[in-house]
Design goal:
Strand content: 5-15%
Number of strands: 17
Number of helices: 27
Helix content: 40-55%
């Protein structure tokens, strides 16, 4: 249905004259303005680009990289569509592997292929066909910007020529033959494969939790720093690392504890240059006679570590855990408004009897060895612990790579995002028991819903703002820790984080964490509509997209699509420790011009297997929504913005033709 637009009047031009004169600087003639209108109108009538939504990567860099390279299985589907039965299955598999890992696959091909020149000729023609397909929904200008400078002209020629025309067949063949003859085939294949990968994902949305558990969060962040188009909605684990980078001791201790729990010392040492020697020396000495059984790291393959290394990590793990409880207690006392006094639990350890005495009841403990706890002042750091924490603070704040990664999160990230009818946030919006918005007090003021998310995002940025007072900055940094584990935090939203109970108490009921009411109402369409309205998300097909809580689709039959399709939970457990819990290895939500699909991934074996054996992540499609009419750029947020530009340019044309503004026509020198 066509949209009725307001008729341009002289009064409108007079009211907008200041802006139109500024616009005339960019489009000084009727011809220039007309050309731009035609260009923008054409863009608006292209199919929308493909958006990919991923959450809870948790350092699983190999799986993440592969999903980017295969575009959540989309490249494989395109290869099947283009070549059908004209290629055998193993040939299509080899072609896909080449697209994903061109440099590595080329080395294998050159060692095994008997007629390399023929292979180059066939493969280049195949890659050109695929590249033509994935570039077809974009303007030539956008495709050109995605091309490597060295081969831009040649690739453009290949993409925009029709080989079905007889007079063009020899032209295209000659280009490819020349590439092979001058020994540039390898570089050209790599260039084409990279273009296919890039054009297969127009926009990438990371719905929180890049760090912790897996070994390669720093690698993921380095990839994102150079990615062509992405955004991040901060998760609780991301916030914890941002707090650590700001120098918050409680966040530093949490980051170290979780990293040591999963044996990811390389992330700290190799990834960010964090000096762990003082902690290691202290732990070996302090806990030399302690088996630290509850603190043995959970690693994917214990055979990669010798017994001495595992024991050292366990000792360091316990040492930093005890220090965490102490520095958290100091923060809790400093911020009584957090109402987290119930998280100060060291004082309830009866060291003489070896029990945890709480609310008049004794609880049996797994571990009663606490050499650094003074019963008279259990939360005071020993001089050695205080020295270690200050050294760690210095190391985290001084890490150049961590600074770059946090800056990347600030540049491309936020607490929430509204994009093309989708509301993205990592975990929750705090609610009351009746499903209404919960009012949360921050610095003496009440916030809820959208205002809460905006204020929280503002505070996170304030923690790195050196233009404000030191006390204001300290308040913001303290609040980052609250976001990690506070009961009214939209990134946590549980009654408690039962870290102490999980490590030390045998009674499992003590470590139970009750989720907030958002999780009770996630399947309530009326409440979800209320949240969407609060964030001004419009459109016939609108959704909330969350991560944070792994969906147990296989193991428990949980449906990731809730509230009659209006809420989609895309945490499928990328992290290896979650595979057993969820029964699979992650989701990707794909939103393209023909609809929205949830892609369920099986575990990824390894990059080595993918290259040498052509193994791919097995993915299963779950249809979320199928568009009756193809979604065009004009139907997106970008399209609405382009239409506003078109409307403004039409006003400028009216102004030129009505004599309100004079054209700046350059005289041609004779």
């Amino acid at each position: 249905m066509s949209i009725q637009r307001k008729k341009i009047t002289s009064e409108m031009i007079e009211n907008d004259m200041r802006y139109l004169k500024l616009l005339a600087n960019s489009f000084p003639t009727i011809a220039a303005a007309s050309t731009e209108i035609i260009n923008l109108s054409a863009i608006n009538n292209l199919p929308k680009g493909t958006e990919h939504f991923i959450s809870d990567l948790h350092g699983e860099c190999e799986a993440f990289i592969h999903v980017l390279k295969n575009a959540s299985g989309n490249i494989k589907r395109k290869v099947n569509d283009i070549f059908g039965t004209t290629l055998r299955e193993n040939e299509k598999r080899e072609l896909c592997t080449l697209i994903y890992y061109p440099e590595q696959k080329l080395e294998i091909v050159k060692n095994n292929e008997k007629d390399l020149e023929d292979w180059y000729m066939v493969t280049l023609h195949q890659l050109v066909k695929i590249c033509q397909n994935v570039s077809s929904k974009y303007t030539r200008s956008k495709v050109r910007k995605a091309l490597p400078e060295d081969y831009s002209y040649i690739i453009q020629e290949l993409l925009h020529e029709n080989s079905d025309e007889k007079n063009k067949t020899e032209y295209l063949k000659r280009i490819i033959t020349s590439i092979i003859e001058i020994h540039r085939a390898d570089d050209f294949i790599v260039a084409l494969c990279n273009v296919i990968q890039r054009l297969s994902i127009d926009q990438l949305h990371i719905v929180g939790d890049i760090w912790d558990r897996g070994p390669g969060a720093h690698i993921i962040m380095e990839i994102l720093r150079h990615y062509h188009n992405f955004d991040v909605q901060w998760g609780n684990h991301d916030i914890s690392w941002m707090g650590a980078a700001s120098g918050n001791l409680a966040c530093i201790a949490n980051v170290l504890r979780i990293t040591l729990r999963y044996g990811n010392m390389s992330t700290l040492e190799d990834g960010y240059g964090i000096n762990l020697l003082p902690l290691a020396t202290f732990a070996m000495d302090t806990y030399k006679d302690d088996p630290c059984e509850r603190f043995m790291p959970s690693v994917a393959d214990p055979s990669h570590y010798d017994e001495k290394t595992l024991r050292l990590m366990a000792q360091m793990h316990k040492a930093i855990t005890v220090m965490q409880f102490k520095v958290e207690a100091e923060l809790i006392d400093r911020r009584p408004e957090y109402e987290m006094q119930d998280r100060k639990l060291l004082e309830f350890i009866d060291l003489k009897r070896g029990v945890f005495h709480y609310n008049g009841k004794d609880y049996e403990m797994y571990d009663t060895s606490f050499p650094t706890i003074d019963p008279e002042n259990p939360y005071k750091l020993t001089p050695a612990e205080a020295d270690i924490m200050e050294k760690l603070r210095h190391s985290f704040r001084g890490s150049d790579r961590l600074k770059k990664h946090v800056k990347c999160l600030f540049t491309n990230g936020c607490m929430f995002n509204v994009c093309n009818g989708n509301l993205l946030f990592h975990a929750s919006i705090p609610l009351n028991s009746d499903g209404s918005f919960k009012k949360v007090v921050i610095n003496g003021k009440e916030y809820w819903g959208r205002s809460l998310m905006k204020e929280v995002g503002h505070l996170v940025r304030e923690s790195f703002n050196y233009q404000i007072s030191q006390e204001e900055r300290r308040y913001a940094r303290d609040y980052i820790w609250y976001l990690w584990c506070g009961k009214n935090s939209p990134l946590f939203d549980k009654d408690k984080m039962a870290t102490f109970e999980s490590y030390f108490l045998k009674d499992k009921s003590m470590s139970k964490e009750e989720k907030g009411y958002y999780y009770t109402y996630r399947d309530n369409e009326e409440v979800i509509d209320m949240i969407l309205d609060e964030f001004e998300v419009s459109g016939e097909h609108r959704h909330i997209i969350n991560g944070h809580v792994p969906v147990q689709a296989v193991t428990a039959g949980e449906n990731p699509i809730k509230a009659n399709g209006k809420l989609i939970v895309i945490d499928g457990g990328f992290s290896r420790p979650y595979h057993e819990k969820t029964g699979f290895a992650g989701y990707t939500l794909v939103y393209h011009s023909r609809g929205m699909q949830l892609v369920q991934h099986e575990p990824f074996s390894s990059t080595k297997d993918a290259i040498e054996r052509g193994t791919d992540i097995k993915s299963q499609l779950v249809l979320v929504e199928n568009s009756t009419n193809r979604v065009m750029v004009k139907d997106t947020d970008l399209g609405k913005n382009l239409q506003r530009q078109i409307d403004d340019l039409k006003k400028l044309l009216y102004a030129y033709r009505g004599g309100f503004i004079k054209e700046e026509i350059k005289k041609v020198k004779r």
